[in-house]
UniProtKB/TrEMBL annotation:
This is 1-deoxy-D-xylulose 5-phosphate reductoisomerase. It comes from the Bacteria. 1-deoxy-D-xylulose 5-phosphate binds at K123, S147, E148, S172, H195, S208, N213, K214, E217. Residues 4-130 form the 1-deoxy-D-xylulose 5-phosphate reductoisomerase N-terminal domain. It holds the Pfam family DXPR_C. Residues 142-225 form the 1-deoxy-D-xylulose 5-phosphate reductoisomerase C-terminal domain. It comes from Corynebacterium coyleae. SUPFAM superfamilies: 1-deoxy-D-xylulose-5-phosphate reductoisomerase, C-terminal domain, Glyceraldehyde-3-phosphate dehydrogenase-like, C-terminal domain, NAD(P)-binding Rossmann-fold domains. Transmembrane segments: none annotated.
Length: 386
């Protein structure tokens, strides 16, 4: 029986993790949940279902914290770093970090300071934290939840690092695959958050639309697997059935394939290195189907090329890439910039980054770099608006 803390328990990944645990109560037990506060009713239902007391719950937003506290008859943990405080207060075997954005970094560090396995869905905390996160992790302590990195980890099991030649990330291409830049200028927020194959949270969905998500995944893969960024490829695979591939020095390539659902990589991370039986239906090879692969259009979608250069430069440039994206996406949703300008702004800020980039030595340094990045994004947006 593994005791699990779920950070972001009411979001897309967190909710599916709850489903996995609900279906496997003999394997897992929830000992804590954390939410931002946007959906307190769902958190209350989860707490009641799994018998959690108020002190096993973290709610970042004060109004949401009040609602959950009233319902459970006690005081929940609240505040900016409530998720990290929850991790520190519980004895967990696994901490699933499914928070959104680089704000999940303190919780990632709290999990790594414990003896818990960190099931990492919050890729931004690794991208932003970089060497700080990697140095804090014990060997094998970080297990990826992203389907792409889970696929790579599965393909590499039982192999020697010297046998691996290249990694291949697959991408659905998002809702605008095949579009020209001129058409992207008219994309609305409603169109940008509709994914053709995956059901994800808003931020992950729009990052998939811009291909920034694939850029973040490239950076994450380079860090997780200690891989030269130039040896990580990205290919468009619209069906989202092949989740990633690993090519070996003898020319063989292994792929991990399963229907597009996050329940399998979530379950695998929760019980790593074991497999949870019947977590989802397998592919049905009695039926006819085909899988397509095509090259990425780097001119229309330059986010991956930017990410590769960022990964090669190392800290703090990945943190700048991520923070610039978060700020630019906020501006897009506010109607201040056009859809393609999200990545334009990331590139513009990266061009100026040498002026304020400094290798961070702790989480506070990362936050300072992010703050400076947001200032540069604000200046870039102001120039566009003029």
């Amino acid at each position: 029986m593994r005791n699990v803390v779920i950070l972001g328990s009411t979001g897309s990944i967190g909710s599916q993790a709850v489903e996995v645990i609900r279906e496997n109560r003999d394997k897992f037990n929830i000992v804590g949940i954390a939410i931002g506060g946007a959906n307190p009713k769902a958190a209350i239902e989860q707490a009641q279902e799994f018998g959690l007391s108020a002190d096993q719950i973290a709610v970042r937003n004060i109004e949401g914290a009040k609602e959950v506290s009233r319902a459970l008859g006690g005081y929940v943990i609240t505040g900016e770093n409530s998720a990290a405080a929850l991790v520190e207060s519980q004895e967990a075997d696994v901490v699933l970090n499914a928070l959104v954005g680089a704000s999940g970094l303190p919780a990632t560090m709290a999990a790594l300071r414990s003896d818990a396995t960190l099931a990492l869905a919050n890729k931004e905390s690794l991208v932003a934290g970089g060497r700080i996160v990697l140095d804090a992790a014990k060997p094998g302590q970080i297990v990826p939840v992203d389907s792409e990195h889970s696929a790579m980890a599965q393909c590499m099991r039982g192999t020697r690092r010297s046998e691996i030649a290249r990694l291949v990330l697959t991408a659905s291409g998002g809702p605008f695959r095949g579009w020209e830049r001129e058409g992207l200028m008219e994309v609305t927020t409603e169109e940008a958050v509709v994914h053709p194959t995956w059901s994800m949270g808003t931020m992950n969905t729009i990052n998939s639309s811009t291909l920034v998500n694939k850029g973040l995944e490239l950076i994450e893969a380079a860090m997780l697997f200690d891989m030269d960024p130039d040896k990580i490829d990205v290919t468009i695979h619209p069906q989202s059935v092949i989740h990633s591939l690993v090519t070996f020095t003898d020319g063989a390539t292994l792929a991990q394939a399963s229907p597009p659902s996050m329940k399998l990589p979530i379950a695998h991370a929760l019980d790593w290195p074991n497999r949870v039986p019947d977590v989802q239906e397998p592919l049905d090879f009695s039926q006819a189907f085909s899988w397509e692969f095509e090259p990425l259009d780097n001119e229309v979608f330059p986010a991956v090329c930017l990410a590769r250069e960022v990964a090669k430069k190392g800290d703090p440039y990945p943190a700048i890439y991520n923070a610039a994206n978060e700020a630019a996406v906020e501006a897009f949703f506010a109607g201040r910039i056009k859809f393609p300008e999200i990545v334009d702004i990331i590139g513009e800020v990266l061009d100026e980054a040498d002026e304020f980039a400094a290798v961070p030595s702790d989480v506070f340094d990362v936050m300072r770099v992010e703050s400076r990045t947001r200032e540069r994004v604000a200046a870039a947006i102001a120039r566009i608006e003029r």
